[in-house]
Amino acid sequence: MITVLIPPMYAGEFDDILDNSSSKDLSDPSEEINLVYYDVKSLTLLESNGSMAMDQCQKLLDIENLTLLTPKSKTALIWDLSLEIYEKDHLLVTGPSGSGKTSLLRALAGLWSTGRGKITFYVKGAEDHLLGAAPLEATPSQDTYPGVEQPKSKDSRGIFFLPQRPYMVLGTLRQQLLYPTWAEDVIPMTDGDKPDGTLPFLMGVSTSENEGENPRKPTTDDIIQVLEDVRLGYILSRFNSLDSTYEWSSVLSLGEQQRLAFARLLLSKPNLVLLDESTSALDEANEAHLYQQIEAAGITYVSIGHRRTLYGYHNRLLHISAADPNSTQRNWYIEPINQDTMYNLSKL
Length: 348
Ligand SMILES: Nc1ncnc2c1ncn2[C@@H]1O[C@H](COP(=O)(O)OP(=O)(O)OP(=O)(O)O)[C@@H](O)[C@H]1O
Known about the structure:
binds adenosine-5'-triphosphate; Rossmann fold; alpha/beta; globular; transmembrane; 16 strands; five-stranded mixed sheet; 28% helix; 24% strand
């Protein structure tokens, strides 16, 4: 069974925030986004045509004819979106405030099911080729979800979601950094940073059946190196050791928490990460440095962001416009980011 690491106390709050999104409110049961995890290894075995299998291996995400509707009023936010993400295909999502960028990431996270269309993640190392769906009602926990085929992946290196305000756990600095991939004894933290409609924590689509298959647990040296890599080496001396415990959301600035979240990424090395304004509190130099680090680590990323500097670290742009309530026309476009894009931006 896949476990998406949402602390139960937050899961409840998510239900409150998104309760209107619950599929039980839908008048038309066919109006639900279908979220599927596909096992690349099994797929490869199933394919007799080698080139096709190779193509599928490199694909990480497939969005097909996705229309996002708001939960109760069923107002369309995004019309008929289709796109594929391959390894090292870094996508920047832009658009005016309220156009639906975060809602799109929620849909990818299985936290927004109102709408239609299909989202397929290609996960390496999973056990079954069709791993199952995870609609919003299946707010991830250890529980099972009636009517939902349970994913069976044990690949904790799959997909991570990283919000603007990273989720801080109660524990030592070491535990912060090992979260969520090696989070056996971590206690969820209650602090002032309650979910405010954004995804409030780093979340890995991972599994719980067999801890032994997690990647090798980082050593103290690995962790110290990663802190240096995200330019946080100085906090070790400030807080004495990796094994000191503080209320981290209070003693670290938001920019430091964002760098810490990138340190977690560098330790866990997911195949794909969804970044929702995850560098918003950082200066441009630190932002550039973090993007270079995750790219060098082989992590493919989809980012939401407003800063123009972000164009430099992405290959493609998905622009979402505010949907016209009187139209069913597509309200998005995708274009490559190249020298021309950068040149045109510099003239604005
Ligand atoms: N649970 C919900 N129920 C009803 N409407 C919602 C819900 N969540 C978001 N919305 C609405 O959907 C629209 C899109 O919100 P979303 O957060 O996706 O926008 P965004 O493009 O990420 O905006 P920003 O750039 O300001 O973060 C907004 O009008 C918002 O009010």
